[in-house]
Amino acid sequence: MRYLLLLVLIALNIQCSPQKNLTKADYDQSLPKYIKTIKADELSKHLYIFASDEFEGRDTGEPGQKKAAEYLREFYKKQGIISPKSELVKDYFQHIPAGAYPRIKKDTENVLAFIEGSEKPEEILVISAHYDHVGMENGEIYNGADDDGSGNVAILEIAEAFQQAIKDGFKPKRSILFLHVTAEEIGLLGSKYYTDIQPIFPLENTIANLNIDMIGRIDDAHLENINYVYLIGSDKLSTDLHNLSETVNKKHINMDLDYTFNDENDPNRFYYRSDHYNFAKNNVPIIFYFNGVHADYHKPTDTPDKIDYNLLEKRAQLIFATAWELANGENRPFVDKAK
Q1: b/e for 103-115, b at 16 or more Cβ within 10 A?
Q2: Which residue intervals of 119-175 are DSSP H helices?
Q3: What sign results for the dihedral spanned by CA atoms 232, 33, 111, 285?
């Protein structure tokens, strides 16, 4: 009986053991399976909570923002995705004190979760979104479902997909930092604090930043063709990154990548208006994923029922596939256009 039990335990151990000596081809062949784990219904479930009235518009330093931070932290704990091992991060939170910048009136925090790479753990891919919004005004709650609840729930699904891959033996070769930043709405200050004051990992080791800010809606320019996402900045610093992004999309997702706002002469200047910019100014290659503005931008009517969850799913899948290639590729994106 003991011998039989031993054989069973050995068999279970073999089934659960991580695969070893995986090739690039192994990762390429497994990617479609994990793309499919990112689903519209799970994104919707998260967003109806994250952009609910309970979170009071997630204004920087206010109770609603604290509730949102706790929601993110609890998700990572349940997934078994760890907090970075750093003296600068305490249980997933990077503390930003009131007065760190003049516009930060109350203590606030970035939320960080971390997957360590198997072969090049010192090289870091950062996937970011801001989780603050503009709070309440005259008794009305500005829920910020698209801006930027959509980006945050996409990161949660992306993180879960990576974690499922790890359970199956496909640990990413490079490390991944899931970075939810605060204080974007008052000047990109959470990401600025990370890059300028307390980078948890050296910026020179940060291979790229994929930043997500509003990916759940459709703008007026695409009412006839909703299979799109705006990409901004992919070619500003690294031709490698741009080419990888294009290749991944054509192979796995096939969305229309719209570069309208990537134009240096774009009057909206979106390249300078979200958290990726604090990485880009430090010569970290970036891609900013964006759906364009709409009538509910920065209004109380930016609510979860306005989100196109199937489109949000597809955009999140594109970002995950791009992250997968960056995390597992032979070389990090080469910076050939340093500022």
Answers
A1: ebeeebbbbbbbb
A2: 150-167
A3: negative
Domain range enclosing 312: 20-328
Instruction: Give the tokens for residue 60.
Output: 């920087």
Tens-place pLDDT, residues 155-210: 999 999 999 999 999 999 999 999 999 999 999 999 999 999 999 999 999 999 99
Q: What is the token pair recorded at 287? A: 């891609």
Q: Is residue 298 part of a domain?
A: yes
| Cis before 266? omega within 30 | no
Q: Is 266 helix (H, G, I), strand (E, B) or coil?
A: coil
| Domain membership flag for residue 93 | yes
pTM of the predicted model as reported, rounded to 2 decimal places: 0.94
107 CB contacts (<8 Å, ≥6 apart)?
61, 95, 96, 97, 98
Domains in the chain, number: 1
Any alpha helices (H) in the chain, and if so which ranges? 2-16, 24-35, 40-50, 63-79, 150-167, 189-192, 239-248, 276-280, 309-328
How many residues are present in the chain? 339
Tell me, what CATH number does 135's domain have? 3.40.630.10
pLDDT at 31: 98
